[in-house]
Amino acid sequence: MDATNQLASVGTFQVLKLPLGFIRVLEWLFAIFAFATCGGYSGQLRVSVDCMEKASSNLSIGIDFGYPFRLHQVSFEAPMCEATRRDRVFLIGDFSSSAEFFVTIAVFAFLYSLTATTVYIFFLNKYRENSRGPLIDFVVTVVFSFMWLVSSSAWAKALSDVKLATDPDEVQLLIPACKIQTNKCGSLHGPRWSGLNTSVVFGFLNFVLWAGNIWFVFKETSWHKGASRFSGGTSEKQAGTFNQQPSNQGSFEQSGSYNSQGGLDQSSEYSQVGGPTSYSNQM
After folding, report:
1. What is the Cα–Cα distance from 117 to 107, expressed in whole angstroms?
2. How far is CA 283 from CA 86, 207, 278, 279, 280, in A?
3. Which residue in 141, 175, 145 sits closest to 63, CA to CA?
4. H runs (alpha helix) in 76-131
5. Tens of pLDDT along 230-239?
6. To the nearest 10°, the Cα dihedral for 254, 255, 261, 266?
7. For the segment 40-92, what is each residue's pLDDT rounded down to a tens digit?
8. Which of 69, 145, 73 lies closest to 109, judged by CA?
């Protein structure tokens, strides 16, 4: 408990009120929702096969599937409507690559955002003193933003294909007994997609969060600070030059008035001296 209290006293939790820390907290929370709703999914659909021979019918065939959605490995037994014979039927499609890619990005994003939040709280001074830390944080944020967009788009496309492959009406076409007109096949209920639809939504929300956080992370880098100093120095030079112009203009006006006065004095002296001289010559 003493070590925990010491860390809490050293930590600067005020950073969580800033966009830099607050968005990081949202990122690891939304990442949890993304991989939990996708990776923890399991669904079921039910179809019925009503044969001419009622003894061979099966009016409730349950088909279970889930993450990582390797549907070609999902099988179920369906009656062949010939005595008591049954046939093993497999679903079609393998969508594990998109699903696993999406979950992997979500897990790594959760780990990184959690680590970054810890650094912000307990090592913020060292984070800002060393220029390498903000630069790495900026590059990783850009990469994760791009990966969230790619993985969410790929998973959204794969989810639409999963919905089509597990549609009870499409599954009936895979059962040989349903191709005989004398037999009747029907769908009892399909899978629930609310969890997987939510995972896609959280995927694109994570993209928005990570893309929006690029600016706040960039402000901590030396690139932004160097540009700010350069623009600040340029504005100061322009302001100093502007302030010097009135003083130079004032000195010019003073010198002009001085010269004009000097010229007036000389002309007056000349008139005073010249007057008596011309008078003596006339005499």
Report:
1. 15
2. 157, 110, 9, 6, 5
3. 175
4. 96-122, 124-129
5. 454 444 444 4
6. 170
7. 999 999 999 998 888 888 889 999 999 999 999 999 999 988 777 888 999 99
8. 145
